[in-house]
């Protein structure tokens, strides 16, 4: 790992959902810390709460109890506007499906989030081109998503996730929609980006082979995190 700065800290996180008359404890007193440059796998059966945990870490849901710290800042109880600003500047997201803007080129998909964060178009274009060259798409930057392969689309999605130099990268099955060889290539790129930028990455996956290649494995079981 490139450094030991804590980029994500979850403390005593609890989350319960109501289902009719029943209350389902999805997360029970979750405690975890992620460090800069660290790839951490989050595994567990469907319905175990992986997506809920990612959503809480990414400020898309609020916990019933507990604290969320991003790069040392307590963020769980901020206003909606403040949480949106933290997501925009400090958190990158990658999903199983790339969610690229179909009417825009690969480069434009990287320019837009930078301009939303306040960069000039000129600076956003320069930085976007640099990052697309880094992920091996220098010759494809003017292509729209429909003209890119699944692996190329996910490379653009990875580049977009780190374009604003976030502290935390959250990925939900980022290779789940790819064939094994392409999944390996995308994972190798993800590893390179995490170690090169010092971002902390929490990656939910059913692929245990990929999970074993990460620094740590966190298993969600009965609403609690078990390491190893």
Which properties best describe this structure?
228 residues; alpha/beta; 4-stranded antiparallel sheet; 29% strand
SSE arrangement:
Elements: E1 6-19, E2 22-35, E3 39-43, H1 50-57, E4 65-70, E5 73-74, H2 80-90, E6 91-95, H3 106-116, H4 121-134, H5 150-162, E7 168-172, H6 180-197, E8 200-204, H7 208-211, E9 216-221, E10 224-227
Helix pairs in contact: 3-4, 3-5, 5-6
Structure at a glance:
With 228 residues, this protein is an alpha/beta fold. It is built from 7 helices and 10 strands.
Q: What is the β-strand count?
A: 10
Question: What is the CA–CA distance across the termini?
Answer: 17 Å
Beta percentage is 25-35%
Largest sheet entry: 6 strands, mixed
Detail the poorly predicted runs: none
Question: Using only CA atoms, what is the Rg?
Answer: 17 Å
Give me the number of helical elements: 7
Find the structural class using helix and strand composition: alpha/beta
Reading the helices and strands in chain order gives EEEHEEHEHHHEHEHEE
Strand order of the largest sheet: 6-7-8-3-9-10
Which percent bin holds the helix content?
25-40%
Shape: globular
Question: Whole-number average pLDDT?
Answer: 88
What does this structure look like?
- The protein has 228 residues and is α/β, with parallel strands linked by helices.
- Helices cover 35% and strands 29% of the residues.
- The chain contains 7 helices and 10 strands.
- The strands form 2 sheets. A 6-stranded mixed beta sheet has the order 6-7-8-3-9-10, sandwiched between helices.
- α3 packs parallel to α5 and α5 runs parallel beside α6.
- The model has no long low-confidence stretch (mean pLDDT 88).
